[in-house]
Design brief:
Layout (H helix, E strand, L loop, with lengths): L6 E6 L8 H10 L3 E6 L9 H8 L21 E7 L1 H8 L6 H12 L3 E5 L3 H4 L3 H11 L3 E2 L21 H14 L1
Parallel strand pairs: 1-2, 1-3, 3-4, 4-5
Helix pairs in contact: 1-2, 3-6
């Protein structure tokens, strides 16, 4: 815990909901979390890293550090993946750690940290045969999944997504995790 507050790593993947992180992080901070953001390489296209760093007080990490370098982030007590893209979900379920975000998520599974993922591929990618298997595998490993298959965005919907991302549901789940820490 940092400053007496539990530390939440927000793993930001490459999807439109990641651009809404500043407001969500402010709500998490008011709930008593210390928040750190780790972005996938594609996630950096959707976030304002400088703004998030100012908001959280920690730099947004994207890459692995050298072993002799100190870690600039406090250790995580819990993690959330927002939005969990098709690519990240499938790689994570296979144990691939080719990005810092995936490496941290794979370690978190081994440490049995609470993790909540919100998969948000478009509905065509969600129908790919591997995706439901990956989601099921992550659930079996104890990852809490927030996913309404019928509410996923359409392919090529861009910023004009008619279906809102489940920020409120995620916040409720994170409040429950926080009370158990």
């Amino acid at each position: 815990m940092a400053e007496g507050k539990p530390v939440l790593y927000v793993i930001a993947c490459g999807g439109q909901p990641a651009s809404d992180l500043p407001g969500f992080i402010e709500r998490l901070q008011s709930d008593g979390w210390t928040v750190c953001v780790i972005a996938t390489p594609s996630g950096t296209k959707f976030i304002d890293a400088e703004r998030l760093g100012t908001l959280t007080g920690y730099p947004v990490r994207r890459d692995y550090k050298r072993p002799e370098e100190p870690d600039v982030l406090p250790p995580a007590d819990a993690m959330t993946v927002v939005p969990a893209t098709f690519n990240t979900t499938n790689k994570w379920a296979q144990g691939i750690s080719d990005t810092l975000a995936l490496g941290l998520l794979n370690e978190a599974l081994g440490l049995r940290l609470p993790i909540i993922a919100v998969p948000w591929p478009n509905h065509a990618l969600a129908r790919h045969p591997v995706f439901p298997e990956s989601v099921a595998r992550l659930k079996e490993w104890g990852v809490r999944i927030i996913l309404d298959w019928d509410r996923l965005p359409a392919p090529n919907s861009g910023a004009q997504v008619a279906v809102p991302f489940p920020w409120d549901e995620l916040r409720v789940e994170l409040q429950q995790v926080r009370t158990k820490l």
